[in-house]
Amino acid sequence: MKTVSINERSHPAQIWNSAPQLHNIPVISTETLVPSGARAVVIAPHPGDEVVTCGGLLQLLSTLGHPLQLISMSDGSASHPGSQQWSEKRLSVFRPQESVEALRRLGLPMHSLKWIRGGFTDNALAGRELQLTQFITRYLRPGDVVFSTWGEDGNDDHDAVGRASARAAALVGATFHEVPLQAWHWPTRDRAMIPWHRARKIRLDTWTVARKSHATHAYASQLDGEPAIGLAPLLPRVLLERIRLPYEIVFV
């Protein structure tokens, strides 16, 4: 499915702030989603996707003492093509530092958190889906509960990593859940394409939401665009507004 990027949208009536179905999504507890003792694995196409999609859930799981593993498939260094301020060389160093700070702001146990970095080139993941699956499979084990981007999210990198993660989880006998990111910013005319019957809502308290928002703002390179060369912010204002909602949604 071809969708428009978040950066190109100007109409306020997006799925996240206008779809009536959002109010009727069943609530699921963290304990039901990730059984006691299970390891949770969050697979992100780009650095920061794990915070935007699962920043609240990660906090809840950490509080409950679940083992956590994060897998960043790319280092995000190709996020600003043509930029002199944010060259690939600078971003290859800067973005991992942003991620460390973001995870610290979430309050995750950095001393025990397992964080795998795939090193794949962002904006080119769709052409390497088989390699993505093989890479992810090496780091999963039976009984894991895996979260990654929805395979129909509308962004090529997100879709490819979501599909690869689903295949890898199936191969090793892990449970897999999808997390939409870009899809919430589709126009409301597309809301019928969302699999609402699979959606579950994880409720977040005020402090959990605040930490998630604070962590997202650690990605300084993604907050400002470069109008002179036609680059919009990778984390636009509308996305920052959405992540302050008191819940996260997964497809089970």
Summed up:
It is built from nine helices and seven strands. By secondary structure, it is of the alpha/beta class.
Radius of gyration: 17 Å
Tally of distinct domains: 1
**Largest sheet geometry:** 5 strands, parallel
End-to-end separation in angstroms reads: 21 Å
Report the average pLDDT across residues.
Answer: 92
Provide the CATH architecture: 3-Layer(aba) Sandwich
Structural class: alpha/beta
CATH class: Alpha Beta
SSE series: HHEHEHEHEHEEHHHE
Strand order of the largest sheet: 3-2-1-4-5
Task: Explain what you see.
- The chain has 252 residues and is an alpha/beta fold.
- It has a single domain, classed as Rossmann fold, CATH 3.40.50.10320.
- Helix content is 36%, strand content 15%.
- The chain has nine helices and seven strands, in the order ααβαβαβαβαββαααβ.
- The chain has a five-stranded parallel beta sheet with strand order 3-2-1-4-5, with helices on both faces.
- Helix 3 runs antiparallel to helix 7 and helix 4 (88-106) packs antiparallel against helix 7 (206-216).
- The longest helix is centred in the middle third of the chain and has 19 residues, at 88-106.
- The radius of gyration is 17 Å and the shape is globular.
- The two termini are 21 Å apart.
- The mean pLDDT is 92.
- It comes from Pseudomonas silesiensis.
- This is Acetylglucosaminylphosphatidylinositol deacetylase.
Write the layout of secondary structure elements.
Elements: H1 15-18, H2 30-33, E1 40-44, H3 49-63, E2 68-74, H4 88-106, E3 114-120, H5 129-138, E4 145-149, H6 156-172, E5 175-179, E6 199-203, H7 206-216, H8 220-223, H9 237-242, E7 247-251
